[in-house]
Amino acid sequence: MRAVVQRVSEASVSIEGAVVGSCAAGYLVLLGVGESDTEAEVEQLWNKIFKLRIFPDGEKHTGASLADVGGEVLVISQFTLYADCRKGNRPSFTGAGDPAESERLYELFVERARQDVPRVATGEFGADMQVALVNDGPFTICLDTDDLKKPRKR
Questions:
Q1: How does pLDDT run across 134-151, given as a tens digit for each residue?
Q2: HEC profile for the chain?
């Protein structure tokens, strides 16, 4: 499972010109589900995102978590995070999960986030969406559960 986490002062998602989801200060999470992902990756990834300390805490630029600042979350499905551009100029998406299973895990991720965050908004799985955001910092982090499982080299 992959996520691009952007610290935002605000973000929204529209479909056919109508806003379907938005958040105030917090995170915009672009979420991609891979072909071998399970509920375990949902839990692992959400726990990492929720505990990230990337908000200012008064002393440091990155000392506070989403919970510390009362942040909101907007989660957008994004299978293109599994783009493979190694051959040619047209990306392959064979590493992305089956659409039905990916939607199930996406919805599970959203429900898991709602257990910890009072306001979690979404787009619409599989829809053509337009995302607008004000990246705060800018601060963007890319996470992959495959990398989170590996021991860190020193």
A1: 999 899 999 999 999 876
A2: CEEEEEEEEEEEEEECCEEEEEECCEEEEEEECECCCCHHHHHHHHHHHHHCEEECCCCCCCCEEHHHHCCEEEEEECHHHHCECCCCCCCECCCECCHHHHHHHHHHHHHHHHHHCCCEEECCCCCCCEEEEEEEEEEEEEEEHHHHHCCCCC
